Amino acid sequence: MKSEYGGSNGRTGRKDQRRSTRREWEQYEDREEQESPAYLELKEQLTTYYRQGVRVSLNGVRMPVNRIAKICAVREEGNYMADYVMDDDGQLTEVRFDRIKRS
């Protein structure tokens, strides 16, 4: 006998329903994080650097500035330190965000 959830015993449907709710919550959390002042300020700063031709990376990996801003603002995996790299003429060429590890 099929349940209202589409599975024969109803378990599959409830699992799908939980998955759907989890996705909705994750999307809500993403919106909340992205609207935080720390995120918005960092994203704006990194976007300005990027438009000026400055490379931006996180732990040695280049990725979109909004993703770097989100990771650094949320700090789920620790704190990050920005390293500003200049060329011989004193022009900013790269901003590297590296995770700070506690010793």
Describe this structure in words.
- It is a single chain.
- By secondary structure, the protein is of the alpha+beta class.
- The protein has two domains: about 1-35; about 35-103, no CATH class.
- The chain is built from three helices and four strands.
- Strands 2-1-4-3 form a four-stranded mixed sheet, with helices on one face.
- Strand 1 (about 55-60) and strand 2 form a beta hairpin.
- Helix 2 (about 35-50) packs antiparallel against helix 3.
- The chain is globular, with a radius of gyration of 21 Å.
- Mean pLDDT is about 80; it is low at about 1-5.
Give short descriptive properties of this protein.
20% strand, alpha+beta, 2 domains, 48% helix
Tally of contiguous helical segments:
3
What fraction of residues sit in β-strands?
Answer: 15-25%
The helix-strand sequence is: HHEEHEE
The helix content is: 40-55%
Question: Could you report the average pLDDT, rounded to the nearest whole number?
Answer: 78
- The rounded distance between the terminal residues' Cα atoms is 59 Å
Structural class of the secondary elements? alpha+beta
The description of the largest β-sheet is: 4 strands, mixed
Overall geometry comes to globular
* Uncertain spans: 2-7
Count of all domains? 2
> How many beta-strand segments?
4
Query: Whole-number radius of gyration?
Result: 21 Å
The spatial strand order of the largest sheet comes to 2-1-4-3
